[in-house]
Amino acid sequence: MKDIFKLFGIIAAVAMLGFTVVGCPASPRDERDSRNGDNREDGDDPSDEDDPVDEDDPIDEGDPIRQGFWAVDYNNVTYHLTAELLARNSYSEIWVEIGSGITRAQARAFADAYAAMRGALLDAYSRKNFAASGRQFANILSFANWLTRGDGGGGRLTILLLDIRAPPGLMIGGYFHPRDFFDVRYSNRRDMVYINSSLVAANWQGGLGVLAHEVVHLINWSETELAWQKHAQWDVMDLWINEGLAEKSYYVVFGRNPAGRINWFVADPAGTISRGNNFFVWNNHRNIDPRAVLDDYATAYLFFRWLFLQAQAAPGVDHARLLRNMVTSSYSDHRIVTSAAREINSAWANWGVLLKTWLAANFDPANSVFGYAGDNELRGRLVGRRIGDAFLSLYPGEGVFSVMNAPFAPPASGPNVRYAGLTPGSGNISFGASPVTGNTLLTFNINANIGGSTEVGFLTGVSPPAAMSSDPLLLPEYYLLVSLWDIAGRGGKEVRR
Question: Is-contact 260 269, C-beta < 8 A?
Answer without folding.
Answer: no
